[in-house]
Amino acid sequence: MFAKAVEGGYAVPAYNFNNLEQLQAIVQACVESKSPVILQVSSGARKYANANLLRNMAKGAVEFAKELGCEIPIALHLDHGDTFELCKDCIDSGFSSVMIDGSHHSFEDNIALTKKVVEYAHAHGVTVEGELGVLAGVEDDVVAEKSHYTKPEEVIEFVTKTGCDSLAISIGTSHGANKFTPEQCTRNANGVLVPPPLRFDILEEIEAKLPGFPIVLHGSSSVPQEDVDTINKFGGALKDSVGIPEEQLRKAAKSAVCKINIDSDGRLAMTAAIRKVFVEKPGEFDPRKYLGPARDALKELYKHKNENVLGSAGKA
Ligand code: G3H
Ligand code: 13P
Ligand code: NA
Ligand code: ZN
């Protein structure tokens, strides 16, 4: 997947799922736009939905895609694995790839942990994503208090010593729907917060040191203003929400960045749709009547990402 994406100048979408409707939307969107896809499961998702159930749902997703008429490449990936044991469990249970996120450890400890996961994973035909540099914001239960950009001078040593297959980097993205403080942004004519640009200079330095090596961007939601407005119009209270402008992600997708992680945008789209139903149709109490519209909104969002942002549409 990554070799084709680096060569083709696009990024494979990595979308998180925790439940049936999210998985349905991801598969439908990627089949309809003929995009390869990485299904991501976090440790929080495993706690929420049960690890066995999620794994078997992912298997079912492959059959579902076939039934929809297109055999798209589908990978099942552990998002933000934090221990060897968690990665091992996913490797043993048939995941295609795992992320070991040692970015909160020292450089040496990150290398040692990542190397240990790589040795086990490669012996089982599974690929590994490592991370260097700390994103701001919330990852699972870990709040990064001190974010820092990836240091280009460390990447060759990290990749060589660990043997990892792809590298997540920190160039200004972060997790969640509030990626920048209002103080870090400027306001446009409509009063909307405009964030500072990503550090493409750091990305270029990394690409120069590791030509063609697969790079991953986490925290790549754009936080669409329409969804924030809909949520707030129908009783929500989201404040100072700001994401990564799509233009920046389009540019990143053309580079060695070949996997782009998006979760928060999907959460916003589903929440907007559900809030709208609850306010407009207060008599509804069948979950299908609000989760259905949420699923449809999510599908449209992800088709848009594949077709207009990541460039993965038509690459299956
Ligand atoms: O990077 C985090 C992903 O959005 C997954 O979030 O850990 O709340 O499942 P989660
Ligand atoms: P967002 O919170 O920007 O959607 O990032 C998701 C992510 O990085 C999952 O690993
Ligand atoms: Na790319
Ligand atoms: Zn992430």
TrEMBL record:
PANTHER family listed in its UniProt record: D-TAGATOSE-1,6-BISPHOSPHATE ALDOLASE, D-TAGATOSE-1,6-BISPHOSPHATE ALDOLASE SUBUNIT GATY-RELATED
Endpoints of the signal sequence: none
Record-linked Pfam families: F_bP_aldolase
Species: Aquipluma nitroreducens
Cofactor(s) needed for function: Zn(2+)
UniProt name for this protein: fructose-bisphosphate aldolase
Record keywords, A-Z: Glycolysis, Lyase, Metal-binding, Zinc
Catalytic reactions of this protein: beta-D-fructose 1,6-bisphosphate = D-glyceraldehyde 3-phosphate + dihydroxyacetone phosphate
GO biological process, one term: fructose 1,6-bisphosphate metabolic process
InterPro entries: Aldolase_TIM, Class_II_FBP_aldolase, FBA_II, Fruc_bis_ald_class-2
Family under the similarity heading: Belongs to the class II fructose-bisphosphate aldolase family.
Function summary: Catalyzes the aldol condensation of dihydroxyacetone phosphate (DHAP or glycerone-phosphate) with glyceraldehyde 3-phosphate (G3P) to form fructose 1,6-bisphosphate (FBP) in gluconeogenesis and the reverse reaction in glycolysis.
Pathway: Carbohydrate degradation; glycolysis; D-glyceraldehyde 3-phosphate and glycerone phosphate from D-glucose: step 4/4
Molecular function GO labels: fructose-bisphosphate aldolase activity; zinc ion binding
CDD domains the UniProt entry points to: TBP_aldolase_IIB
Assigned EC number: 4.1.2.13
Positions contributing to Zn(2+) 2 binding: 101, 131
Binding-site list for Zn(2+) 1: 80, 175, 218
Cofactor note: Binds 2 Zn(2+) ions per subunit. One is catalytic and the other provides a structural contribution.
Active site per the UniProt annotation: 79
